[in-house]
Every structure is written in structure tokens, then in C-alpha cells.
Amino acid sequence: MTISLLLGQLLNGLQYGVLLFLLAAGLTLVFGIMSFVNLAHGSLYMLGAYAAAVVGGQTGSFVLSVSAAVITGLVVGAFLEWVAVSRLYRRDHLDHVLATFGLILFFNELVNIIWGPQPLYLALPHWLSGTFELLGFSYPLYRLVIIFVGLLVAMGSQWLIHRTRVGMLIRAGSVNPQMVGALGVNIRLLNAFLFALGAALAALAGAMSGPVLAIQSGMGEPVLITTLVVIVIGGIGSVRGALYASLLVGVIDTLGRTFLPFYIREFASRDIANAAGPALASMMVYLLMALVLIWRPQGLFPAIGGAR
């Protein structure tokens, strides 16, 4: 194991964790604060990736492709909230699950009909395709950009929730929506804003992952499961907890997938090690969640009295 390899994989883990946070931040607003179980959050991530790929392919501009993804997330999120989600707030969580699972099937089939089963790819512009050099260590510049964008979103989320009037209403509405509504606040409009914002963050995550991953139907479901694990570890409703848990899960998963096969090769063949290493790394994430729930059932950084 070399220092360069370890440092590179640590940065890869941070980059993966930041992408998870972009998803977890939006989902924790909807799930933790609004108490709405949105399984279609991964589909919004997928739609953002497709929107970025289409606009990027037509214009060649990466900035326009990311902007198109965010706008798509906002519009689709607001439309879904108006058409379906707003009618389910007072229903049981099982109804949330069934309705949003139906949306997963709908969106997966929709992108198959429009773009077909072949994956799309989002090309990087030349100014983001280089590497960053420091003391002989080189790292892809775009992955550093992902980390930077995720940290900006984290700071913006904290500012929105703790430093603005809208954030004050969000925190109050998550504790006692009836009282906030009685004071003249339009709770339905506030919920629509939160849902659309969460959808925009999911679409942003999809756009940022486009140059790294293949864009295809169903790409949102695997990452949604990991995102739910992140929210449970960090604490439901806590944006700060979502950030720390995302980084923790990203680093553990990446380091496990990279280094576990090397250690397993001491006891088994290369083929077995290459197959068992990534599987054990995934298991470590769920083992971490189980240990956290045993130690702190409310998560590492629970949202006490509203969003944090």
C-alpha cells in the first residue's frame, strides 16, 4: 500500500460521500422533516442525469447541462407534489411507499420509451478533464469539483435552515404544523417548496454523477438504498448528520472495495478475493448502521426539536 494510493482512495471516498450527501440532503428534508416516505427520490436523481446528458449533448456546455438538471428537478418535483404527494401527507406511510414505488416503475419505463435501454454518457469539458497536481500527487480535477459542490450545498443547507425565515418556518413546521398554519403560514406552499428543493438536489446529484457513471434506467434504486442507510446513521431530519454519515459511508465503502481484496488474497485465490472484497465492503456499511442503531437508535446527530 502506497501513500498515493491511500490518499487517492480517501479522496474517492469523499467524492462518493459528497454525491450521497446531495441525495441525502434532499431526502432528509422530505422524509425527516415532512415525514413523507419518498421512494421515488432515486428516480428524480435519474431524471436529473438524463436531463444533463440531453442538454450537454445538444449544447456541449456542462454548466447548461447541470442547470437543466436542477430546473428539471424543481419542475418535476413541484408537479409531483401538486398532483400526487400533497394528497398523501395525511395518509399512512404504507400509502407513501406504494404510491412512490409506482412512480419508480413509471419513470423507469418512461426513460426506456424515450431513450431506450442503452446507457447515455455526459462528456466533460476540457477545462474539467485534467488533473490536479500537488507534491507529485495527481487527482482528477472533476472529482475535486464534486467535493467542492457538495460542501457548498452543505453550507447552503445549513444557512437556509438556521439563518433564514424560511428555515425558521421549516423547523417550526416540522414540530407543530397545525400551530404554524394557525399563525397564517401557508403550510401547503412550504411543503411544496421543500419537496421541490429536495428534488432539485437529487437532480443535481444525478447531473454531477453523469460524467462518472453510466446514465441508464433504474440507476436511482441502488443509490437510494445507500442514501436511506445514510439518513438512518446520521439521524432522521438532520442535514448535518446526513453530511457526516455520507462522508463516513463513502470512505468506508471505497476503502473496503479497494483494500479488502488485497488482504483476502492472503487466504484465497485472486478471483475469490475480487468477488468477496466488494461484497464485504457493502456489508460493512450495513454493519455500521446496525452498530449505530444499537448504540444510538436516534442516529449520530439526531434532529432535536426540528431540522438541524
TrEMBL record:
InterPro entries attached to this UniProt entry: ABC_transp_permease (IPR001851), BCAA_transport_permease (IPR052157)
Record keywords: Transmembrane included?
A: yes
Q: Alphabetically, which GO biological process terms does the record hold?
A: amino acid transport
Is the Transmembrane helix keyword given for this protein?
yes
Q: Which residues form a coiled coil?
A: none
Q: Which domain of life is it from?
A: Bacteria
Extract the GO molecular function terms from the UniProt entry.
transmembrane transporter activity
Q: So what family is this one in?
A: Belongs to the binding-protein-dependent transport system permease family. LivHM subfamily.
Keywords of this entry: Amino-acid transport, Cell membrane, Membrane, Transmembrane, Transmembrane helix, Transport
* Identification of the protein by name: Branched-chain amino acid ABC transporter permease
Q: Which residues cross the membrane?
A: 14-37, 44-60, 66-85, 97-115, 141-161, 189-208, 228-252, 272-295
Q: Which GO terms describe its cellular component?
A: plasma membrane
Compartments annotated for it: namely: Cell membrane
Q: How does it sit in the membrane?
A: Multi-pass membrane protein
Q: Which organism is it from?
A: Neopusillimonas maritima
